[in-house]
Amino acid sequence: MKINEIAKATGLTPKTIRFYEQKGIISEPARLENGYRAYGQKHINELQMIRRSRLVGFSLEECQTLLGMSRNPNRRSADVKQKALEKIAEIDDKIKELQAMKKSLKSLASTCPGNDSACCPIIEALSSADGK
Predict the structure, then answer these.
(1) For the residues 4-22, what does the mean pLDDT come to?
(2) I need a labelling partner for 15 at 20 to 30 A (CA). Which of 6, 7, 33, 117 fits?
(3) In 10 A of CB 5, how many CB atoms?
(4) Which 3 state secondary structure label does DSSP give 57?
């Protein structure tokens, strides 16, 4: 299977697939006599796993770790679950951070009259040295 075919099958771009290959994240495809890469079902599975892992928040480095675990027949599901639980904790922390940002922004927005005046408490607060 050529790169355009695997791109279509996985929903990834050829550029992304080449990047993953260059970084050693996916298995190296065989080369045909003409030098073209020959991808197979194994590559589709790896790329789909990366894509799905990215969609639930795993970094590329974490995807590489998960792929390595998927290739290991002696892996422990407890180790995989631990990775998922760690990601959930990270997501929870990020949600708290985003909620704090939202609260701050709402507070700033409530101070602004939102009229035709050039005076803007939001700009003043964001540009002041103490942030107030």
Answers:
(1) 95
(2) 33
(3) 12
(4) coil
Packed helices 60-71 and 41-55: angle between N→C axes, nearest 10 degrees: 130
DSSP β-bridge partners for residue 31:
37
* Cβ-contact 125, 108 below 8 angstroms: yes
Q: To which residue do tokens 């789909």 refer?
A: 48
Burial of 22 (0-12, 13-18, 19+ CB in 10 A): exposed
Phi, psi of 93 (to 5 degrees): -60, -40
Q: How far apart are the C-alpha atoms of 29 and 100, rounded to whole Å?
A: 46
pTM of the model: 0.80
Kindly state the tokens that stand for 131: 């942030």
In this prediction, residue 132 carries a pLDDT of 59
Question: Can you name the residues that pair with 105 across neighbouring β-strands?
Answer: none
